[in-house]
User: What shape does this take?
Amino acid sequence: MNNHFPQNLSILRRRAGYTQESFAEALGVSRQAVGKWESGQALPEAATLLTMADLLGCSLDLLMRESLTEEGEVDALAVCREQEEADQAVYDAYHAMVGDFSKKIAAGVFLVLCGVTAAVLTVAWALPEWTAVAALFVFLIAGVYLFITAGMAEDDFKEEYPEVQPLYDPEEKREFQLRFRLGVALPVMGILADAALCGILATMPGGEAREMYIGALFLGVLTLCVTPLVYLGCLSDRYELREMSRRERRKTSDLCGPIMILATAGFLLWGLMWDGWKVSWVCFLVGAALVALCQAAQNDRDGR
Assistant: This one.
């Protein structure tokens, strides 16, 4: 094999209509491997060469020995490389944006649930009712701010880049899927254990304040379990790239803010009008369940 192979591979791949990503999938290798072959950093195995020639519709001799540098070909190659670099830059920006978006949405949900927990604790401590409302709204305002800023940043990115090429390594996606399954299973188990523990504690004798402490414990553990679920759900979009037009798909994140605001309104209305502070925190459990249902429905529509 001579030094014509890297350039020949790049030219023939483009002539056959493959991107580095699609060609890597057809060969069953990573995109990085194809990149190393085309840059001359590595060589494929003999069996891979045969499969490669079949996919490209050429002979091994043409692929390995002949020079495909006729007039105009080098310029076209440079243009294609520039396009790939531009696509990679957009994907890197998308990768960073999704990470920041996921953190903000998860932090917003965490703050809202912390506000509910703080409100329940103020009732348990027999503080004035206004302290519960104040504690709730301090956290709620911070959470809604994160929802709004995250959503605006995502919408701006969608308008600027309506489509992003999936340039991740398939191995990277498989590793994330393994972490995703574990990251979902553990919080769900934690929620079930939390419900069981609080159910047992509720059967024991005690006063009204004790019931509120049990409710605060349940909400605190629920907060710690729901937050990673929301974060992982948002983060999974890094590996589920599609047309990003807002007319085509509506993300669960767009509904997180309104759902939690409605849950807060229900909590306050129930508590203030019917003195239901002991049980009105259930509104936030319903809100969290609705967010989870929206995520599941979106995943089903996207064919994940």
